[in-house]
Structures are given as structure tokens and as C-alpha cells.
Design brief:
Blueprint: H1 2-15, E1 23-26, E2 29-40, E3 55-58, H2 65-77, E4 90-96, H3 100-113, E5 118-134, E6 141-156, E7 167-168, H4 176-194, E8 203-206
Parallel strand pairs: 3-4
Antiparallel strand pairs: 1-2, 2-5, 4-6, 5-6, 5-7, 6-8
């Protein structure tokens, strides 16, 4: 029975994206690990050629939607004191991994509150390297390489290229009763299209 349990734990430790419950078998006993470093590799912008002054909102797994939208809405709706110009014209919401759904939600909330926004959605992958160290002393260290799906959503008050892949035109009819239903439907379509990106298996390297 104990041998079967050890084999199952070893199999789980070698196939899971991160160490299960921070445990790994070493010399026949479990060793606890803690994550000490997480590095995201730089990736090219999915929207090359954007003009200066674009608001970039980085959505994280632990981000509060109320805080994100409070800041973004203020910048997009703010009226400049001098010259009578309106606030920012474009905003990009981006997130990866478990923050993808929250990123889509932020974009849909802004489209519901600010009418006439043009949208372009881009899907890609982002490489992440995590370093785990043993909590039982020694120099035991483990590096986990992960490839996470990510999403970037550009919203613009100005027209965008309708031939660009991922383009969505502004909603033509928008009211309080039907707006929420349309928002939910568009969010579902975005999530469904994003579902085609499956997170590849992480690679683990013990040092």
C-alpha cells in the first residue's frame, strides 16, 4: 500500500504544472517546496503601431475589478481642463492564465458603460519561469517552465481596421435592459474562442 502511494505521488510530481501541495519525493520521503521567484518573459505587443497615450491595464489573478474599472473609467471619461479635449481615446486590457476571464469581464463592463467602442482581441502565449526552493534546508531547487495562454483587448473610441483579425464593431443598439444580455453573450463568445488555447504541459527541471 505504501509503495503504491509513493508511486502515485511521484507521478503527480512529474506531471503537474506546479508541485502538488508543494511536495516532492526525495530519498523516499516528502520534501516541501516554496515558490521564491516568478519571472515572465517579455513578449511583443499584439498591437504594434499604437499611438502614444494608450492606457494599458494589466489584469492579475488577484486584481479587484472595482479598482481596475474605477481607474480606467476615470481616465477614459475625464474631461481635460485645458483645450476642451476629452480623456484618453484607447485602452488595452491584458491578462494571462487565470486572469483571462477577469480581463474579458473588464472589457465588457467598459463597453457597456461607454458606448460606441471599437474592439480588437488578440490571443497568444506567454512564457513564465518559476523557481521553487526546499523548505527543509540544503541547496535543493526546482525550476518550473510554464506556457500560459494570454489575452489582450484593445478598446477604442476611434474607428479601427475592420479587416484586422479579432475586430468587433460597436454595438448598434444598447439599452439598460438588453445591454447586459448582449454583454454576457459577447463575453461568452470571447471565452469560447479563447478556449481553443489549451495550456501546454509544464516542464520541470530539478537542480
Amino acid at each position: 500500500m505504501e509503495a503504491n502511494a509513493n508511486r502515485e505521488a511521484c507521478l503527480c510530481a512529474s506531471t503537474s504544472p506546479t508541485p502538488p501541495a508543494n511536495l516532492e519525493l526525495k530519498h523516499g520521503h516528502a520534501v516541501r517546496f516554496k515558490k521564491v521567484c516568478r519571472i515572465e518573459e517579455e513578449s511583443l505587443s499584439p498591437f504594434p503601431g499604437l499611438p502614444a497615450g494608450v492606457l494599458e491595464m494589466k489584469v492579475k489573478e488577484g486584481s479587484k475589478i472595482r479598482n481596475l474599472m474605477g481607474f480606467a473609467m476615470t481616465r477614459m471619461q475625464d474631461e481635460a481642463r485645458d483645450g476642451g479635449q476629452t480623456g484618453l481615446r484607447r485602452v488595452v486590457f491584458s491578462g494571462s492564465g487565470r486572469a483571462v476571464t477577469k480581463t474579458i469581464t473588464c472589457a465588457e463592463i467598459m463597453k457597456r458603460k461607454i458606448g460606441g467602442l471599437h474592439q480588437i482581441t488578440k490571443l497568444q502565449y506567454k512564457s513564465v519561469r518559476e523557481v521553487w526552493e526546499s523548505q527543509e534546508g540544503g541547496d535543493s531547487e526546482m525550476t518550473v517552465h510554464r506556457t500560459l495562454p494570454s489575452i489582450s483587448i484593445l478598446l477604442s473610441k476611434d474607428p479601427l481596421d475592420p479587416l484586422e483579425p479579432g475586430y468587433q464593431p460597436p454595438e448598434t443598439v444598447w439599452d439598460e435592459r438588453n445591454g447586459e444580455e448582449a454583454s454576457c453573450a459577447m463575453e461568452k463568445r470571447s471565452i469560447d474562442s479563447f478556449g481553443s488555447l489549451v495550456e501546454p504541459q509544464a516542464k520541470k527541471q530539478c537542480l
